[in-house]
Amino acid sequence: MPKFIKNISKTISYPPGTIISVGEEKAQKAKLSIIDYSAEQFEEKNIQDPQVCLSFRDKPTVTWLNIDGINDVETLEAIGKCFDLHPLTLEDIANTGQRPKYEDFGEYLFVVLKMLYYNQNQDDIIAEQVSLIIGTNFVISFQEKEGDVFNMIRERLRSAKGRIRKMGADYLAYALIDAIVDNYFLILEKMGDEIEVMEEELVSNPMPGTLKTIHNLKQDTIFLRKSVWPLREVVNSLERGESKLIKKTTHIFLRDVYDHTIQVIDSIETFRDMVSGMLDIYLSSISNRMNEVMKVLTIIATIFIPLTFIAGIYGMNFNPEASSWNMPELNWRFGYFLSLGAMLAVGLVMILYFKRKKWL
Amino acid sequence: MPKFIKNISKTISYPPGTIISVGEEKAQKAKLSIIDYSAEQFEEKNIQDPQVCLSFRDKPTVTWLNIDGINDVETLEAIGKCFDLHPLTLEDIANTGQRPKYEDFGEYLFVVLKMLYYNQNQDDIIAEQVSLIIGTNFVISFQEKEGDVFNMIRERLRSAKGRIRKMGADYLAYALIDAIVDNYFLILEKMGDEIEVMEEELVSNPMPGTLKTIHNLKQDTIFLRKSVWPLREVVNSLERGESKLIKKTTHIFLRDVYDHTIQVIDSIETFRDMVSGMLDIYLSSISNRMNEVMKVLTIIATIFIPLTFIAGIYGMNFNPEASSWNMPELNWRFGYFLSLGAMLAVGLVMILYFKRKKWL
Amino acid sequence: MPKFIKNISKTISYPPGTIISVGEEKAQKAKLSIIDYSAEQFEEKNIQDPQVCLSFRDKPTVTWLNIDGINDVETLEAIGKCFDLHPLTLEDIANTGQRPKYEDFGEYLFVVLKMLYYNQNQDDIIAEQVSLIIGTNFVISFQEKEGDVFNMIRERLRSAKGRIRKMGADYLAYALIDAIVDNYFLILEKMGDEIEVMEEELVSNPMPGTLKTIHNLKQDTIFLRKSVWPLREVVNSLERGESKLIKKTTHIFLRDVYDHTIQVIDSIETFRDMVSGMLDIYLSSISNRMNEVMKVLTIIATIFIPLTFIAGIYGMNFNPEASSWNMPELNWRFGYFLSLGAMLAVGLVMILYFKRKKWL
Amino acid sequence: MPKFIKNISKTISYPPGTIISVGEEKAQKAKLSIIDYSAEQFEEKNIQDPQVCLSFRDKPTVTWLNIDGINDVETLEAIGKCFDLHPLTLEDIANTGQRPKYEDFGEYLFVVLKMLYYNQNQDDIIAEQVSLIIGTNFVISFQEKEGDVFNMIRERLRSAKGRIRKMGADYLAYALIDAIVDNYFLILEKMGDEIEVMEEELVSNPMPGTLKTIHNLKQDTIFLRKSVWPLREVVNSLERGESKLIKKTTHIFLRDVYDHTIQVIDSIETFRDMVSGMLDIYLSSISNRMNEVMKVLTIIATIFIPLTFIAGIYGMNFNPEASSWNMPELNWRFGYFLSLGAMLAVGLVMILYFKRKKWL
Amino acid sequence: MPKFIKNISKTISYPPGTIISVGEEKAQKAKLSIIDYSAEQFEEKNIQDPQVCLSFRDKPTVTWLNIDGINDVETLEAIGKCFDLHPLTLEDIANTGQRPKYEDFGEYLFVVLKMLYYNQNQDDIIAEQVSLIIGTNFVISFQEKEGDVFNMIRERLRSAKGRIRKMGADYLAYALIDAIVDNYFLILEKMGDEIEVMEEELVSNPMPGTLKTIHNLKQDTIFLRKSVWPLREVVNSLERGESKLIKKTTHIFLRDVYDHTIQVIDSIETFRDMVSGMLDIYLSSISNRMNEVMKVLTIIATIFIPLTFIAGIYGMNFNPEASSWNMPELNWRFGYFLSLGAMLAVGLVMILYFKRKKWL
Known about the structure:
The structure is a homopentamer. The first copy, chain A, is an alpha+beta fold.
């Protein structure tokens, strides 16, 4: 639950544009790393002072500034000043409760995305907010914590693999978004595996605990939907947007990301259908099993009740001496065995009847 | 229920534009307070006579007139005359059954919103209608009762914190709407907490009373949806509207409110999904538990029924003296203990069988 | 059911434009009443001969012709000729199975509405079709039966209250539509009360009959939806329509009616959600109660079955004289009381066990 | 089921435009009848040779060619050549698995509709495909079998009733479509009656067979929806279409058909809601009844089990002679009647308890 | 499950435009076959070296290059170079996890489709990705494996049947798409048959295994929907697209394919409704049957319990010698038979009562 509503109440009742970090950890010094490149040249370094950015800002090369840690209000403000960011943009970067969105501020584009991880320990999906600022020749990425899915891109930049070094800031932004969306497929595969395992289990051996697991899977699909649906709009806006910051040649790549987003949404909707189908099957499996138990038990009881009745009859104390009409069977030679035989017969007839009716 | 349909019948059958207060309390004198400010100057006072407004109306400074109490027809009419409000506007202000809406009357914009409170005593969400009139250099806000979420804004105005004193009436209106929407997050957090508590309870200890609570949560989400969905349209109309009363610089702030509204709607929809998921889990938990009870009880009965049958057999009165074939066991040396042993054996076999079938 | 599909089959297989009354009552002479007014002048009278209308038609004053009874084909045709109505219009007026609609015939506007009543005797909602013809300076209203919700408007016209006498035919049409829509709120309040009562009853004392009532409420909401949803379009078309017959000043009033319509739809949707929620609660209440019954009964049975088994043991006839190993307890001094005590102990243990498991 | 997917596989794997009849009957010679009329003149005859059409084609009078039987490939091709029909049109006419559609081929309009019948014997709805070709001054109608709903129109043409003889081919096409749509109301009435009967039965006497009937009703609504929903688009396209073949004066009549179509759709949706409501009621009625049975039976068992226990106690064989503590009641004077009295008392107390708890 | 998410994870983390085959089989040499034709001329051959294509590329005749096997990265790249394909196109061709899509690259159109097969052995639907490149006078088709639904078209090309040899590359592309869509009807018929069989079985003899089958049918409809819904958009885009590569005369044929797609979607939606209806019926059938079992068993138990009670009474040991009030019946002449008669009477009364209540 907490993952749905993140301490939003902290941020209200401040003037708009105030940067309030909503994270639970204490504000730590943000880590800044800069990559500056062109087709010919490449430079990478970690920096301490946001002011350093100024020197990169106006160079014709493409600059990628990555910030890990968004609780550091001072750094955020320094970067905001350096790159002329709107106060509302800074507020949105710090407030991790945003849904994915795209805003065109003219001088720069602001994109909020959700990076998803599978938490191995708690078997849980975790979302981290990634904000991107796309300018003429720079991209700034803000992340909540260190560790991301961008290493592949750094590697490509360093080794000048593919066309990335020859393209502009918009292509870099595309590459970052693509890396995040591609990562969703890993989540989907994990979920797909889990669903497959569950389906097997459902048919072979449904347990009360299964309900909890299905419920968790359902929550996960709800959570995924909430993160991915708005993403579709975001990528679509980027592709169709008329911002001059996105070059024409990049559009075709963004359309590719868009296709991937649709594929992700498609799979989530399919998972949803499947999970709700699993709930139906689980419920009817459980109820089938319970009915099976009740049926067998009732049958045992039903067979013995008439037998007990017969035994009850010959347990009556009518006095044979008072009248020869009273329970003459008691004095018959084979009375006892006849009565046992009668019981056996009744029991067999009932079992046959049940078998024929297919209740056994 | 009464919160869904407020004494609307009172207002029908009057000519349109007639002001009828639908509140249940007696009409009380409305309380008027005025705040008049510009970047340099600030004035705040409570007034008695609505006519006083006239003097503020044409000043170039921004004037915020707040009215607490909308049952006071006379005052409403006086204000209406003073600011040239359309009779239908006044009717809508007095009639608290409105859904959030936005209307452009050319000379002024009319916005109806719902302010939501959590009633601590009854654990209930309460809605209060807030109407805003946005003019060239004035904003009028109408509230049902004293007490609101605007104190933060008054404070900012007084202390000239942020940019609010430097902006016009449209920015003030934005600030008021923002305060109302931000307050929704508090409601959402409360509901989120309640849902979280419920989910724990559901799994660990479902009780019949739980159903009532889930039902109440569901009603609350229905109520919230009804209040918030139209709000989206309202804020969107304000942002996209072509009224000259909203300056361009304010649009970006309204877009921010719009984003918040979408976030609120998103969360409500998520809550809805979760609450209906909880109902499913509750129902199957209850039925699981009941089945558990029935099963154990039936098993006990089933074990003893064959045992009782055996006891019944040796309670029969076949006469051993009439024939040595009759119940010879009765005269065996260890007949009694053999029969007890047989019962024990049957009982154990059944228990083992049940265990193996995992019914126990 | 009959209220959903009204003898439509009667009307098919006639050439289009043929007036066929579908009512079940015999065609009666329609009652015509005319109100003619301007700001200064007012005239009201009942007329017999539709031809009289001709004299009013071309007067600059506003004329309101009201017809009660639409089975009178002759009168309909006479009015049609007098006001140049299209044959299809007349067919639609006579055929009460129409859904609310709006048509612009150039010379006049044709509006079909549903007037709703609560039938006190059968606790049922009844719909009556009201058709309006809006011309340059006349309005014609057709009703199925005498008795309507327009008296308030007649009174306002007579007493020249409000602005109605100063406005044109379009404002009169607005007033009539407004009266009909306002009347829906009465229906909604009645339904709201009924739902509230039902909800109380559901929790405190669910009865099999409740199902029938919930079903009826559901049918009522389906019926209301069917009548009100198309109304929205109708009023919207009137407001946005480009017909010159509707003056600009009337648009704002029509927008007000539109808002009311949306409010009505909103409430119906809320009722729908609540009624379907009630069905869930009813079903689980009933099943909870039944389970409660079954549980207690099963517990009683389960307690006594082992006790009866003990009694059965000491009812066995093993012969103590044949062997001192046979049922020595029977000859013990306190054998009887010990056995009774054992039974009591078993019973108590079971009760305690059930209590601890919270099954009792 | 077969009515949903008609032997479509037969038609695939042929080049497009190949005419393949999918009907199950052998191809029979099609029957052609021609009606040629203008306001003054009327001619009607059956023809054998499609070539005869050529003489009618270029006459200024309106020509209605009706073909019964679409398995006759030769005739279809002859007509196609005669009226210059596109091969795909002919393919669609022969392939009865089409959904209702409208296509504008410039020279002519092609409309596919479904004519619905109630099969009296099997209590089933049957669909027959009717294709219309609307040209400048001719209409061609193709039907699967003889027998249709057009007799009323033929009669009107013969007797020159109404305006039909004075209008063009487009009005004739309208009349044919109107006849088909009007016929739907008959189906709706039949279904409405059936639903009404079912609802009565549901409450008074639910039977297992009822489930099958509800299921059939549901299938029928699915089938109707499938046939009627696309019809809406078709009629709308005809009305809004910019084809010169439809005159302006005919538009108002097509709008009338459109209204009827909406009414039909409305009713089908209502039926759907009602049928699914019936399923809910049926299920809970059945389960209520079953619970009722189980309850009464369990109560009987529960009352007798404690009584049997008491009887069991006094059936124990503790030896009164061994000790005067052993079962002294057996020797009491009124021991027997006291025990019977105790049983009676226990039984009555339980009955009273059950009554008070309202379980009886 | 694996069919929903195909090893997508393999493809992520590569630069965009990298061709990665996701199939599980080892990359095999692709098989290339070329058909080159015009109205007068026809040439067909298998080729090894993709370079051969170059000679065909610029000929005015229509060239159809078919590639079986998309794991062969080298061949793909060679073809890509030869026909100037965008790297993203090649990536999409190799990655079989695409959803159907249409992209206009100016010089060529790129279409991805799903070819569906019914796997006879596993009773499962299998999807194979088919990619089409449509250029000015060539069509390239990529398939995962050998064997396709295009043989009919090859035959038509060879024999110059129909108009296909006279038309351009766009018509060929249409023919290929049409063949794929037509093949869907075969799948639909198979599913239709299966559903029909299931429906019969459901009513006559529901079994626990039925649930699994219904679940599989549901999965199949989900899978089909996922494949076919985007197809609709694809064909619509092709038809409405403004690409000059599609000639006007081909539009009408594409509209025909579009109609077929709609028909397929229609049928899938109908199947969905039916399958979910079947689940309802299955569940209530199973529960009906189980209730039937429980009822009969409970009735047997209920009849014998009072009888056993009577037998228990006369098994009590009250001492007739101690008092003549004690169990005098035991010494009556016909006491035994009277008691048996009483039991019979009680049993009969209960059976009659059950019969009258229609529980038996």
